[in-house]
Amino acid sequence: MGWWEAVILGLVQGLTEFLPISSSAHIRVVGPLLPHGADPGAAFTAIIQIGTELAVLLYFRKDIARIIAAWFRALRGRDGADAKARLGAHNADARMGWWVIIGSLPIVVLGLAFKDSIETTFRNLYLTAAVLAGFALVLWLADRIGAKRRPLGELTLKDAILLGLAQAMALIPGVSRSGGTISMGLFLGLTREAAARVSFLLAIPAVLGSGFYELASEYDTLQAPGAPGLVNTAIAAAVAFGVGYVVIVWFLRLITHRSYLPFVIYRFAAAGAIVALLATGTIAAT
Question: What domain count does the chain have?
Answer without folding.
Answer: 1
